[in-house]
Design brief:
The chain is of the alpha+beta class and 172 residues long. The protein contains 4 helices and 7 strands; from the N terminus they run E-H-H-E-E-E-H-E-H-E-E. A 7-stranded mixed beta sheet has the order 1-2-3-4-5-7-6. The termini are far apart. It comes from Faecalibacterium prausnitzii L2-6.
Length: 172
């Protein structure tokens, strides 16, 4: 078995991260995005904590990150998950290891709810999230069009922290 490592994402990882993100975009099942943004835009959109990469034998195989869903203080413990595994690394359990690590890290940082929006055709992502403790809390019908103009549904999946007040929770 290869040597698997999970560590915080660094700016120097961006070339590999963006390549994996572009692979996900190309599947047309992972995101409605049609192009990978430049690092500055991606960096501004995602929370600085809870950015992880998984390496297989020293090669960056996947990444996961969080973004806030709402800037209001009452939602400070709620974030949306992005997770991508490189094409040649899929189907080997790396996604579940990475998502599990992200969930653990998010609780250390005080997040109590993680959301994930999964496109209707992405059965692998539905399975991954379910395996890691997420549940479907809604289906948004005909919410957006793909790049071919086809209406698609998305599933809203949610995972609650194990404790009502995770380790990093901050009261007023």
């Amino acid at each position: 078995m290869s040597n698997i490592t999970i560590r915080p994402m660094e700016p120097e990882d961006w070339d590999a991260v963006s390549e994996i993100y572009s692979e996900g975009i190309a599947t047309e099942h992972a995101t409605f995005q049609t192009a990978c943004p430049p690092y500055t835009a991606w960096d501004a959109f995602h929370i600085k904590e809870c950015r992880l990469v998984i390496l297989d034998g020293g090669e960056l195989a996947g990444w996961a990150a969080l973004r806030r869903i709402d800037p209001r203080w009452c939602y400070r413990g709620v974030a949306e998950v992005s997770i991508y595994v490189g094409e040649k690394f899929r189907g080997r359990g790396l996604g579940s290891r990475l998502l599990t690590a992200l969930c653990e890290e998010s609780e250390k940082e005080g997040y109590w709810t993680l959301h994930s929006t999964v496109l209707q055709d992405n059965t692998a992502s539905l399975g991954l999230h379910t395996k890691c403790g997420f549940r479907v809390v809604g289906r948004r019908e005909r919410i957006a069009r793909d790049c071919h103009g086809r209406w698609l549904d998305t599933y809203l999946m949610e995972r609650r922290a194990k404790a009502d007040e995770p380790a990093g929770y901050k009261r007023l």
